[in-house]
Design brief:
Length: 187
């Protein structure tokens, strides 16, 4: 399956973003390792998984990091017009699903793709989405999902965009019209 490149809407009307609080571990403005192309990466604060060997153990404490809001983040993202997409990582992005869904919706309207990392499996996220509208909305705006916990025994530094062999990169662009997901091909 080929990479989806949404049509960019240059000169389109201003995209408004609701102001929703979000706690951050940090951001990276021009990453080439957190998904395809040049990406703006948002690392949220707080993670229930506590995977041994986690790349970002400082992101686990839900009270750590810094508090900001989606409007301020969107203003920052707009300073990088050459990016191909945004990536939500962490911490656990689905603990901030409403805020990230708001940013993802704006990104998609602007023609950017969205990649979301999660320690939850896609199947578990589908179950959560049945009762949590914010999880449903974040899945709806996500093009690519890296699912599953990081497992230190399965660590593999040769993998593209993920840290352990159990993790999958799924093209979920068709969610919710289809719960099926296909392995994404970034070759």
């Amino acid at each position: 399956m080929a990479l989806h490149r949404p049509a960019r809407r240059f000169g389109a009307p201003q995209i408004s973003v609701k102001k929703i609080p979000v706690r951050l571990f940090g951001t990276v403005s021009e990453s080439i390792v957190d998904g395809p192309g040049i990406r703006f990466v948002i690392f949220v604060q707080g993670c229930p998984h506590h995977c041994p060997g986690c790349h970002n153990p400082g992101s686990h404490d839900p009270e750590g990091g810094t508090l900001t809001d989606t409007s301020a983040l969107w203003d920052t993202i707009l300073k990088y017009p050459h990016i191909d997409g945004i990536t939500f990582s962490g911490g656990e992005p689905f603990t901030h699903a409403a805020a990230l869904a708001e940013l993802g919706k704006a990104a998609r309207e602007k023609g950017l793709n969205v990649m979301t990392y999660s320690g939850y499996t896609y199947g578990r996220l589908l179950e959560m989405a049945e009762t949590d509208s914010a999880v449903h909305e974040l899945l709806t705006v996500t093009n690519y999902l890296v699912d599953g916990p990081f497992i230190l025994a399965e660590r593999d530094l040769t993998l593209k965009y993920r840290g352990s062999r159990n993790q999958r990169i799924l093209d979920v662009t068709c969610y919710p019209n289809s719960a099926d997901a296909a392995e994404a091909d970034f070759a």
